[in-house]
Amino acid sequence: MGSRVLVVEDDVTVAEVVVTYLKNAGYEVEHAPDGQAALDAAARAWPDLVVLDLMLPGIDGLEVCRRLRTTGAVPVIMLTALGSENDRVVGLEVGADDYVTKPFSPRELTLRVQSVLRRVAGPPPVHPDAPAVLTAGPIRMDVTAHRVTLHGEPLALTTREFDLLAHLLAHPGQAFTREELMKTVWGWEFGDQSTVTVHVRRLREKIEPDPANPTLLVTVWGVGYRLDPPVPAPSEGAPA
C-alpha cells in the first residue's frame, strides 16, 4: 500500500474527485468532511500527508494545520480559493508545505502530492560535491543528520525551509531567480512563485538579526535571492 493521505474537504463533489485520483495514483486515502473529523482521523492513524481545505465548517483549515503541527511534522497541502492571496500566505506561514488554488486540476494536485512526499522522503537537494556540514556565519547545517543550529542553538525549520537553506548554503554568493529555486530545490515545473517569497521571509525571520534589513539572505533586485556569508573580521593585530 502506498503512502496514507488524509483529504479534508467539505465539498462532497470535490472530495470524491480528489479521493478517486489519489487512489488511482496508488495512495491509501481517507476523507474527512470537516476540521474535527480531520483531527479525529489523524489521532486514529497518523497520515503521511494531508490535503487540507482552508474553508471548513467548525474548525477551519488554518487551525487544523496548527493543531496537527503540535502533534507531529506532517506535510500539508492547502486548498485555497482563487484570489485569496492572504489565505495562501497565512497558510504557508503556519507551516503548510504547498498550496493549490481552486478551481484546480486533480492531476495537478496529484503531482503536488507526489512532489511533496518525494521531497520529504528524499535527501536535501544539495550539490553532490557539497560537504556534509554547511556553514555561513552563525549558521551550521549538518545535512546528513538534518540538523541546523544558529549560534550553537537548535533551529527549527520546516522541510521546505531546510531544503531552501541547504541549497543556498551549498552555493554561497550565487544569485537564483525564484523560478530556479522552485525547480531546483523543490522540483516544481509550475506553481505560484510567491511561495518562494514566503519561504524566504520565513527563513529571514529565523536566521537574520534584523529580518527587515537582511544581511545573510539578501534580495538581488531584478533577479532573486542570494546567500552572502559574513566576511570574517580581521584578527587583532593583523595588518588592515
Automatic annotation (TrEMBL):
Q: Does the keyword Transcription regulation apply?
A: yes
Keyword Transcription tagged: yes
Give one Pfam family: Trans_reg_C
InterPro entries, per the entry: CheY-like_superfamily, OmpR/PhoB-type_DNA-bd, Sig_transdc_resp-reg_receiver, WalR-like, WH-like_DNA-bd_sf
**Domain Response regulatory intervals:** 4-117
- The residue ranges marked as DNA-binding region are 131-229
Print the keywords alphabetically.
DNA-binding, Phosphoprotein, Transcription, Transcription regulation
4-aspartylphosphate modified-residue sites: 53
Q: Which SMART domains match?
A: REC, Trans_reg_C
Q: Where is the OmpR/PhoB-type domain?
A: 131-229
**Which PROSITE patterns does the annotation name?**
OMPR_PHOB (PS51755), RESPONSE_REGULATORY (PS50110)
Under which name does UniProt file this protein?
Response regulator transcription factor
* High-level lineage: Bacteria, Bacillati, Actinomycetota, Actinomycetes, Sporichthyales
